[in-house]
From TrEMBL:
<comment type="similarity">
    <text>Belongs to the FMO family.</text>
</comment>
<protein>
    <recommendedName>
        <fullName>Trimethylamine monooxygenase</fullName>
        <ecNumber>1.14.13.148</ecNumber>
    </recommendedName>
</protein>
<dbReference type="InterPro" id="IPR050346">
    <property type="entry name" value="FMO-like"/>
</dbReference>
<dbReference type="InterPro" id="IPR036188">
    <property type="entry name" value="FAD/NAD-bd_sf"/>
</dbReference>
<dbReference type="Pfam" id="PF00743">
    <property type="entry name" value="FMO-like"/>
</dbReference>
<keyword id="KW-0521">NADP</keyword>
<keyword id="KW-0274">FAD</keyword>
<keyword id="KW-0560">Oxidoreductase</keyword>
<keyword id="KW-0285">Flavoprotein</keyword>
<dbReference type="InterPro" id="IPR020946">
    <property type="entry name" value="Flavin_mOase-like"/>
</dbReference>
<dbReference type="InterPro" id="IPR000960">
    <property type="entry name" value="Flavin_mOase"/>
</dbReference>
Length: 512
């Protein structure tokens, strides 16, 4: 038996809904704080650029207890994902729990001074009981509410990167438009206009293709370095999930806390693994015509398959070949009326500059002492199971375990977090055990998977199975793998299978 808690979930995107459902399903009282006027996070219509689709197939991008509609295509559109999330929130009774247009401005441990003039509301339990004051700004002004447990599900990348270059005002004064890729929501903005896109992420290539389709006068992508991209179908035939999302492919990467047997297997198979990656590079070079385009990446593909796996936007490489999209290696040096000068010295006529430069890492509302505890000097987060820190009680994170199957990993991590918060894990760790795991995990990331550093050490990809195995074992699941060993080894993660695994976790009840 454990006590019912007042739980605050920050964010109503994919991970926030997973956390809200997990805590509510166990019987806790849940409030979800969402700074915008609608749920969905990155899939909210006001943040989605035209033509956006999932990078993961629909059978991977789903909750364990709700499949996407059969009518959805293999890779659903942004609008379809948002519709799925809205339906999920409605069906699970989460909508009444969400306070929209409510921005979190700070967290303070209960019992500490929270400043004058901020009215208290909601749960205001004895500060000696632990928990947090959550300070917010909404339509009613500033408020302060006490909670027993806070789950941060707002995403590690929640603030846009904002770039400044000389001449931006002159460019705007001449009628030019400069915006972040997340602000490109109206295709009319590019019709008949000369468009320059800075960046080479999936969003950059998506926007480039959409701009061509919407009738832009010209489209130029400016990028620093070419990166390996994966097609939706290898050789136009094989769905990439069959090759890259199974245990067999995951086993080619050295994981954390490997046994001696695993280390021996990696040593013995290293030549075969090396040959596999070189063959894949050759296939991609041929399929996309990278050598002819002068865009064959120099780094090995296995080094880039980490937290992010960039899919090739359909139509992007054919449009490069026929000239509808121009690509220049470099970056923006300055703006002027009607044009942009690049670091290469090239001057491009431009009406619209779309900056696909990503998002800042961090959680701005955390107090400084908590931020210092959670992060290392090199910017890595100290989170056990990518979810909690032993020195910051009553605080957890969902969705900070970036993966190729975000909905699934957030769903299972949220259910793990509920049991951790309630002290009901079958393997409830001590502070020393958590700190030891964190130290080993970050040492492993720095030495074995340095590509993950840009994510602050917060990603489970490409180790979906290994990460989920750990969570299920912690929860005491009697089932952790599918009955068919061939399916478990050579097929992608299966959300229905994980629903079955979760159903084998020991149950417990709350007091009251």
């Amino acid at each position: 038996m454990t006590k019912r808690k007042q739980v605050c979930v920050i964010g109503a995107g994919v991970s926030g809904l997973a956390a809200a459902h997990a805590f509510k399903d166990q019987g806790h009282d849940v409030t979800v704080l969402e700074r915008s006027h609608e749920l969905g996070g990155v899939w909210a219509p006001h943040r989605s650029y035209p033509g956006i689709r999932t990078q993961s197939p629909k059978d991977l991008y789903r909750y364990t207890d709700a499949a996407m509609p059969e009518t959805y295509p293999e890779w659903p559109s942004g609008a379809q994902v948002h519709g799925y999330l809205e339906s999920y929130a409605r069906d699970k009774g989460l909508l009444p729990l969400i306070r929209f247009n409510t921005r979190v401005t700070g967290l303070v441990r209960r019992g500490q001074d929270t400043g004058a003039g901020i009215p208290a509301g909601g749960a205001t339990a004895d500060p000696r009981a632990g928990g947090w004051w959550v300070e917010t700004e909404g339509a009613a002004g500033p408020e302060r509410t006490g909670y027993d447990f806070v789950c941060v599900a707002s995403g590690v990348f929640s603030e846009r990167n904002e770039l400044t270059h000389p001449g931006m005002e002159a460019f705007r004064d001449g009628g030019g438009t400069i915006l972040h890729s997340s602000e490109y929501t109206d295709p009319a903005l590019v019709r008949g206009r000369k468009v320059v896109i800075l960046g080479f992420s999936k969003s950059a290539t998506d926007v480039a293709v959409n701009a061509v389709q919407q009738g832009a006068a010209s489209v130029t992508v400016v990028y620093l370095e070419p990166v390996w991209r994966v097609p939706y179908h290898f050789a136009g035939l094989i769905n990439f999930k069959r090759i890259l999302y199974c245990r067999a492919s995951e086993a080619m990467f050295p994981g954390w806390d490997m046994s001696w047997g695993e280390k021996l297997r990696h040593a013995l198979t290293k030549p075969l693994v090396w040959a596999n990656w070189r063959a894949l590079e050759s296939l991609l070079t041929l399929q996309f015509g990278l050598k002819q385009l002068g865009m064959r990446p120099s780094q090995p593909i296995e080094n880039g398959i980490s937290c992010g796996l960039s899919l090739a936007t359909e139509g992007f490489f054919p449009m490069l070949k026929d000239g509808r999209i121009k690509a220049i290696q470099g970056t923006i040096a300055s703006y002027s009326q009607g044009g942009i000068t690049l670091s290469t010295g090239d001057r491009l006529d431009a009406d619209v500059a779309i900056l696909a430069v990503g998002w800042k890492i961090g959680v701005p509302f955390l107090p400084e002492d908590v931020r210092r505890t959670l992060t290392t000097p090199d910017g890595q987060f100290r989170l056990y199971r990518l979810a909690v820190n032993p020195d910051v009680p009553d605080l957890g994170f969902v969705g900070f375990n970036s993966s190729f199957a975000t909905v699934l990993t957030s769903d299972v991590a949220a259910r793990w977090l509920v049991r951790y918060a309630d002290g009901q894990l079958a393997r409830q760790p001590s502070k020393a055990e958590m700190s030891g795991w964190i130290d080993r995990h970050l040492d492993w990331r720095r030495s074995v998977r340095p590509a993950a550093r840009v994510y602050g050490g917060l990603c489970s990809a490409p180790y979906h199975f290994r990460y989920l195995d750990d969570l299920l074992a912690d929860m005491g699941a009697a089932r952790r793998r599918r009955a068919n060993p061939l399916a478990e080894t050579f097929l992608p993660p299966d959300a229905d299978a994980y629903r079955s695994h979760l159903s084998s976790v020991p149950a417990y009840r709350l007091e009251g």
